[in-house]
Amino acid sequence: MYDYIKGTVTKITANYIVVEASGIGYKINVANPYSFSNAMQQEILLPLHQVIRDDAHVLYGFHSEDEKEVFLNLISVSGIGPTTALAIIAVDDNDGLVAAIDTSDIKYLMKFPKIGKKTAQQMILDLAGKFVDVKSDAKSPKTKAAGNEELDEAMEALLALGYKASELKKIRAFFEGTSDSAENYIKSSLKMLMK
To answer: Where is the Helix-hairpin-helix DNA-binding motif class domain (predicted)?
Structure first.
């Protein structure tokens, strides 16, 4: 089992990043790949979790140990797999997530993709009181100028997280004509989708 990887970010896609360590490129699934844009071609230390299935060995990476802890707690809930857990983490509102679980706010939890009433209730049952001192990670925003390509990348990443194209159509229309980073588009879109 891997605990972390120290290497250089060499590729960013809508679903994953590639980190090169000792001449090997590791494909690592992350919640918001474009949040690693400012680390491109730089060495990073990335906490990891490995999931071994019959057909694949999959690596999941995180910005911090706290984010990894949230992920591990989420996948311990029946009905939540790694992809759904990443979609929940991508919202980058750990405080809101913990508050929703601790106050039994089923409506808030059901706003995440693939979370129905039964799974939301199971989250509350399994996770209430388990999160201690978990905070939202402050990630520095990119300063690079961006255009429609960044918006396209953001929409592609949101589709990969499980949101429906019909949901994203209104979001895309809202941001048309604006200029921002894919990371910021994703964060803003997720906040809008959670309302």
So the answer is: 72-91, 107-126
Q: Output the CA–CA distances (angstroms, integers) from residue 109 to 14, 87, 193, in the order listed.
A: 24, 12, 12
Q: How many Cβ atoms sit within 10 Å of the Cβ of residue 171?
A: 20
Lookup: tokens for 58: 């999959």
pLDDT tens, residue by residue, 72-89:
999 999 999 999 999 999
Q: Are residues 114 and 83 in the same domain?
A: yes
Q: Which of 90, 37, 22 is nearest to 62 (CA)?
A: 90
pTM over 0.90: no
Total residue count of the chain as it appears in this document:
195
Return the CATH number at 44: 2.40.50.140
The domain total for the chain is: 3
In which domain, by residue range, is 26 found?
Answer: 4-61
Distance of CA 190 to the CA centre of its chain: 10
Tokens of 59: 């690596």
